[in-house]
Amino acid sequence: MTITNPLLIGLSGLQASQRGIATTGHNISNVNTEGFSRQRVDSTPRQALRVGATFLGTGVELGRVRRIIDEYAISDVRNATINFNHVDNLLGKAARLDDLLADSDTGLAPGLQSFFQSVQGLTTQADSIPSRQVLLSQGQLLVQRFQKLDVQLRRERESINVELSAGARQLTQLAKAVADINQKVLGFQGSTADDQPNDLFDAREELLRQMGELAGITVVPQDSNQVSVFVGNGQPLVVGTEAQTLTTQTSQSNPGTLDLVLTVGATQFNFGQEITGGKLGGAIEYLNGVLEKGLNRIGLVAVGLADRFNTQHALGVDLNGNLGGDFFTDINANAVALARVSALGNPAPTAVLRADVTNVGQLTDSDYQLRYDGANYTLTRVSDNTVVSISAGLPVSADGFSITLSGGVVAAGDTYRVQPTKNFTSQLAVQVTDTRRIAAALPIRVQAPQIPTGNTGSGVVRAISISATGVGTSIQNGSLAPPVNIVFTSATTYEIRDSAAAVLGTGTFTPGQDNNLILTAVPNLPNLAVHGFTALSNLGYEITLGGTPLTGDSYAVSYNTGGVGGNDNAIRLASIQGSAFLDGGGASLSEAYGTLVTEVGTRTREAEINRSARETLLQQSEARRESVSGVNLDEEAANLIKYQQAYAANAQVISVANQIFDTLLNSVR
Length: 669
Fold this sequence. Notes:
By secondary structure, this protein is α+β, with helices and mostly antiparallel strands.
């Protein structure tokens, strides 16, 4: 008959208690260690011995020290971390931009209002030098607001570049650390199945969580307790014991930004800005979805202001009697047009392209990509990835601009980034420096003969509108060629005559209502040809007359020499403020800018709501993991007492067994 050995039983219990005390102490000491999972000692009864008709126990068999984890809870925390950090970073950046755009010191709305108020002031005091100086000063201040805002947004873009570079370095470092742990874990595969490097698993999981803070990652378990990590659209960052290098380089699709590049051995894979999730994903969403649109939208407002104000200013005359030129920078100046097109990684670029704005009302707040495949030019709008034009040759036109070849040759495969509005803000400037050069008056005047030989009817000049000045029109710089007289041959008919009384056109007049005299006149082509015109509309202006003129009444149209006493063009300049000519004719300057403020505010609010929701999900995920894997000091204290008492009891078993053994020895002496 075999009897179980109480010494061995007590010794096994003693060892189990020792391991329990050590594991409990390990849990307690790591209560504040980030990512630590509490551990427990597994134990099973040793195989019992059969003694007669029964079985007697032989003690305890020690098993592995096991991590108390829930794989789903761990994965849930990682995913919640990725989502929260994405929207948290997006919110922080969008909120800053929202404050910047709406601030009274940096936003455009107050600047536009002050500028057009100064234009309104000129309508009441057109000849006042102080009023003109206020207009120039407000123009300069408005330009400064545009440029200050542009600088701030470009600094934001530079900070994102810095963030992407730093994030790429951190991800590379974390990837190497994960690969190192994979290597160490692989080294334990020769041990028994019950021996697991629990602390290494926790450390690796914490590294993966930190990677999730930076970017969206996919973790795939591999054989031998290793993991692989993928980023972007499935690019491998960690494969087993090998970690790849993530870096940045100048973007091949968007000048001024950075692309992410994965280096695998001697091969580089450029996956652009395709990382989603985490802080980097939030930064990229802000860059492409908010910041780039903001730069384009502010540039759109600047282009619209310069184009409309310049066009109207050129139709006026200044105090020196000269036609008004550009008040702001010409939107299609050579340097401006060339800066709108950038070559993108073309192997041997020789072509120089330019983009000219043809219709500001059709411009969008998007960049474009132009690609030549050797047969056709394809123009794609980047914001919605829509092909807007396919052409066999240049020019290529769409959305209010036209691309032409300025020099060189476009090769098959060449690609270009076209930015119709983005860069103009930094190029905007006030071109007028002399207050006398502000064209507040119209270049022509209409005068009736003075009494006593004046008109006898009640005809009244309602409006003078200027459509064009300069070469090809009758309005020249300093003169009107030809000056004309409008003479009524009856109450319902009139003639348009030149200074030599030659008839240039005849028309009919409806008394009691406004009549456009030039438009409704039938031209006398031989006499018009003498002055170099083929149609009355080419004169470049229109006279609107109302009331009831009588036979013999006349109106002399001449050049407004000196531009004194005229505010008609200033009134037209002031009306630009409320004119809806942007965004397809649906928005004024302030409304076009307000669209940006509203969109950024909406994105900020959405991000705020999403952040709150995802923060709650993250907290719930962490609480769920903590409930399973977290260290509870009260529980551990109870376990420590339990193992301490078990240790003492097992020691007592050994002591009793020793006494029995001594008694047996003494009995046979």
